[in-house]
Amino acid sequence: MTTSNQEMMDKVCNADGFIAALDQSGGSTPKALTLYGIKEGEYEVGKPSMFDCIHKMRTRIITSPKFNGDRILGAILFEDTMNREIEGVPTAEYLWKEKKIVPFLKVDKGLETEKDDVQLMKLIPNLDTL
Asked: Which listed residue, of 30, 70, 75, 104, carries a Cα 20 to 30 Å from 18's Cα?
Protein backbone atom coordinates (compact mmCIF):
# COMPACT_ATOMS: atom_id res chain seq x y z
CA MET A 1 0.00 0.00 0.00
CA THR A 2 1.40 3.42 -0.92
CA THR A 3 1.93 6.08 1.71
CA SER A 4 -1.08 8.10 0.46
CA ASN A 5 -3.31 5.03 0.48
CA GLN A 6 -2.18 4.17 4.01
CA GLU A 7 -2.81 7.76 5.13
CA MET A 8 -6.31 7.65 3.62
CA MET A 9 -7.04 4.30 5.28
CA ASP A 10 -5.81 5.61 8.63
CA LYS A 11 -7.99 8.69 8.31
CA VAL A 12 -11.13 6.73 7.48
CA CYS A 13 -10.49 4.19 10.23
CA ASN A 14 -9.40 6.54 13.02
CA ALA A 15 -10.51 10.14 12.49
CA ASP A 16 -13.79 11.75 13.51
CA GLY A 17 -15.98 13.32 10.85
CA PHE A 18 -18.47 12.49 8.14
CA ILE A 19 -18.56 11.48 4.48
CA ALA A 20 -20.00 14.07 2.10
CA ALA A 21 -22.29 12.76 -0.65
CA LEU A 22 -21.34 14.61 -3.85
CA ASP A 23 -22.50 11.78 -6.08
CA GLN A 24 -25.51 13.22 -7.90
CA SER A 25 -25.98 11.24 -11.10
CA GLY A 26 -28.30 11.87 -14.01
CA GLY A 27 -31.44 11.00 -12.08
CA SER A 28 -30.88 13.19 -9.04
CA THR A 29 -29.06 16.07 -10.71
CA PRO A 30 -32.04 18.20 -11.85
CA LYS A 31 -33.41 18.31 -8.29
CA ALA A 32 -29.97 19.11 -6.82
CA LEU A 33 -29.44 21.91 -9.36
CA THR A 34 -32.91 23.35 -8.67
CA LEU A 35 -32.19 23.41 -4.93
CA TYR A 36 -28.88 25.12 -5.75
CA GLY A 37 -30.77 27.82 -7.71
CA ILE A 38 -30.13 26.72 -11.29
CA LYS A 39 -33.30 26.40 -13.38
CA GLU A 40 -33.82 23.46 -15.77
CA GLY A 41 -33.89 25.84 -18.74
CA GLU A 42 -30.21 26.66 -18.12
CA TYR A 43 -29.11 23.15 -19.17
CA GLU A 44 -30.36 20.14 -21.09
CA VAL A 45 -31.33 17.20 -18.84
CA GLY A 46 -28.99 14.24 -19.29
CA LYS A 47 -26.66 16.17 -21.61
CA PRO A 48 -23.11 17.49 -21.05
CA SER A 49 -24.48 20.94 -20.16
CA MET A 50 -26.23 19.43 -17.11
CA PHE A 51 -23.07 17.66 -15.94
CA ASP A 52 -21.10 20.88 -16.49
CA CYS A 53 -23.51 22.69 -14.18
CA ILE A 54 -23.29 20.03 -11.48
CA HIS A 55 -19.48 20.06 -11.68
CA LYS A 56 -19.45 23.84 -11.23
CA MET A 57 -21.65 23.36 -8.16
CA ARG A 58 -19.37 20.63 -6.77
CA THR A 59 -16.28 22.74 -7.50
CA ARG A 60 -17.72 25.66 -5.56
CA ILE A 61 -18.46 23.37 -2.61
CA ILE A 62 -15.09 21.60 -2.70
CA THR A 63 -13.02 24.77 -3.04
CA SER A 64 -14.77 26.45 -0.11
CA PRO A 65 -12.39 26.93 2.84
CA LYS A 66 -15.07 25.35 5.09
CA PHE A 67 -14.97 22.13 3.02
CA ASN A 68 -11.83 20.54 4.43
CA GLY A 69 -10.44 17.46 6.07
CA ASP A 70 -10.86 18.87 9.58
CA ARG A 71 -14.46 17.66 9.67
CA ILE A 72 -14.93 15.75 6.43
CA LEU A 73 -13.39 12.28 6.20
CA GLY A 74 -14.33 11.59 2.61
CA ALA A 75 -16.49 12.51 -0.35
CA ILE A 76 -18.50 10.15 -2.55
CA LEU A 77 -18.04 11.06 -6.22
CA PHE A 78 -20.08 10.24 -9.32
CA GLU A 79 -18.22 8.53 -12.19
CA ASP A 80 -18.32 11.68 -14.37
CA THR A 81 -16.57 13.64 -11.63
CA MET A 82 -13.58 11.30 -11.83
CA ASN A 83 -12.98 12.57 -15.38
CA ARG A 84 -13.05 16.25 -14.39
CA GLU A 85 -10.64 18.64 -12.77
CA ILE A 86 -10.71 21.28 -10.05
CA GLU A 87 -8.22 24.11 -10.49
CA GLY A 88 -6.38 22.03 -13.12
CA VAL A 89 -6.05 18.93 -10.91
CA PRO A 90 -8.08 15.70 -11.26
CA THR A 91 -10.94 15.91 -8.73
CA ALA A 92 -10.01 12.86 -6.64
CA GLU A 93 -6.38 13.99 -6.46
CA TYR A 94 -7.45 17.54 -5.53
CA LEU A 95 -9.61 16.26 -2.69
CA TRP A 96 -6.76 14.36 -1.09
CA LYS A 97 -3.76 16.59 -1.84
CA GLU A 98 -5.42 19.96 -1.24
CA LYS A 99 -8.15 19.15 1.29
CA LYS A 100 -7.07 15.86 2.93
CA ILE A 101 -10.50 14.43 2.08
CA VAL A 102 -10.59 10.79 0.97
CA PRO A 103 -12.30 10.37 -2.43
CA PHE A 104 -14.77 7.49 -2.81
CA LEU A 105 -16.28 6.41 -6.12
CA LYS A 106 -20.01 5.79 -6.23
CA VAL A 107 -20.16 2.22 -7.53
CA ASP A 108 -23.54 2.27 -9.24
CA LYS A 109 -25.24 4.19 -12.05
CA GLY A 110 -28.57 4.79 -10.38
CA LEU A 111 -31.49 2.42 -10.08
CA GLU A 112 -32.73 -0.28 -12.42
CA THR A 113 -36.42 -0.45 -13.29
CA GLU A 114 -38.40 -2.14 -10.55
CA LYS A 115 -38.96 -5.85 -11.20
CA ASP A 116 -40.82 -8.29 -8.95
CA ASP A 117 -41.15 -5.58 -6.26
CA VAL A 118 -37.35 -5.12 -6.15
CA GLN A 119 -35.28 -2.24 -7.48
CA LEU A 120 -31.59 -3.02 -7.89
CA MET A 121 -28.71 -0.63 -8.55
CA LYS A 122 -27.25 -0.34 -12.04
CA LEU A 123 -23.64 -1.46 -12.06
CA ILE A 124 -20.79 0.58 -13.55
CA PRO A 125 -19.31 -1.37 -16.46
CA ASN A 126 -15.49 -1.45 -16.60
CA LEU A 127 -15.25 -0.26 -12.99
CA ASP A 128 -11.61 -1.39 -12.78
CA THR A 129 -10.55 1.13 -15.43
CA LEU A 130 -11.60 4.06 -13.24
From this structure: 30
Residue type, 101: I
Rounded alpha-carbon distances, angstroms, from residue 110 to 39, 76, 106: 22, 14, 10
**Lowest pLDDT segment from 17-21, 28-32, 35-39, 70-74:** 28-32
Cα–Cα nearest to 84, from 75, 93, 76? 93
Full DSSP string of the chain: --HHHHHHHHHHHH---EEEEE---TTTHHHHHHHHT--GGGS-TTSHHHHHHHHHHHHHHHHSTTSSTTTEEEEEE-HHHHT-EETTEEHHHHHHHHH--EEEE--EEEEPPPBTTB-PEEE-TTGGG-
The residues near 92 (Cβ < 8 Å, ≥ 6 apart) are 77, 82, 103, 105
Structure confidence at residue 130 (pLDDT): 62
